[in-house]
Amino acid sequence: METIRVIIIDEQPLFREGIRATLEQMGNCEIIGESTDVGEVLDIVRTNTADVALIDAGLTSSDPLEIARQTRHLAPRTAIIMLTPSEDEERLFQSIKVGAAAYYTRNITAQELVDAVRKVSQGEYLINDDVLSKPQLASRVLRSFHELTVEKEEGTPKDSYSPLSSREVEILDYIARGNSNKEIAKSLKISDQTVKNHITSILKKLSVSDRTAAVVHALRHGWIKINEN
C-alpha cells in the first residue's frame, strides 16, 4: 500500500492527538505536519507532498477557508477534509467553493475518518449527498461550480462526448435542480427504483461516489447547464 501523507490543522490538542492516533493505526498513513499557523502550514505544503489536509473549520487563530484555499493553490493534488463544529450550510457552501473534497462534523467516528482519508487520497469527492436534498443550497453550490468552471475554461472547448445515455443526462439535470428521486420518478413517469438504477449507473460510469459529484462532473464537461432563472 502506498503511504498517505497527511497534514493536521486543528487547534484542540486532545482532538488532534485522537486524529493522529487513529490515522497512525491505518498502517500506511504518515503525519507530515501539525499546525494552526497559516505560514507554518503553507511551509509544510510547499516542502512536502501531502495527499490529505485535515482542517478544523472552527479555527479561531487562523482563517480555515483561507488555509484551504492557499493549500489548494499551492498543491492542487492535496485533498481537503473540513471538520466542522456543527452543521452549517454557509460553512459547507464556502468549503465546497474553496475545493474541499469532504466535509464532516466533529462527531465523525474513527472508522469514518479512516475511510474518508483513504477515499479522498485516491481522488474521490465525498461532499455529503445531503447538499442536493436542500434545493436552495444545491442551487448556490451548483451555480457557484458553474461560474468557477466558466472562469477557468472560458475559450476552451467543452468535452462533447458523454458516457451517459440521454436519459441519464436528463436525470442529472433534474438532480441539479434539487429534485428528489421521487420527484424525478413522477416527472419522468418511471418508478423510484428505475431512477435509483439510473443513478447507480451514472455514478459507476463517472467513477464518483455521490450525486453531487456527478452533477459537478457533468457541469464541468458541459453536459448539463444551470437554469439562470
From TrEMBL:
Residues 157-222 form the HTH luxR-type domain. Gene3D superfamilies: 3.40.50.2300. The modification 4-aspartylphosphate is found at D56. GO terms for molecular function: DNA binding. Pfam families: GerE, Response_reg. One of its GO terms (biological process) is regulation of DNA-templated transcription. The keyword Phosphoprotein applies. Signal peptide: none annotated. PROSITE patterns: HTH_LUXR_1, HTH_LUXR_2, RESPONSE_REGULATORY. Keywords: DNA-binding, Phosphoprotein, Transcription, Transcription regulation. Residues 5-121 form the Response regulatory domain. This is DNA-binding response regulator. The lineage of its organism: Bacteria, Bacillati, Chloroflexota, Ktedonobacteria, Ktedonobacterales.
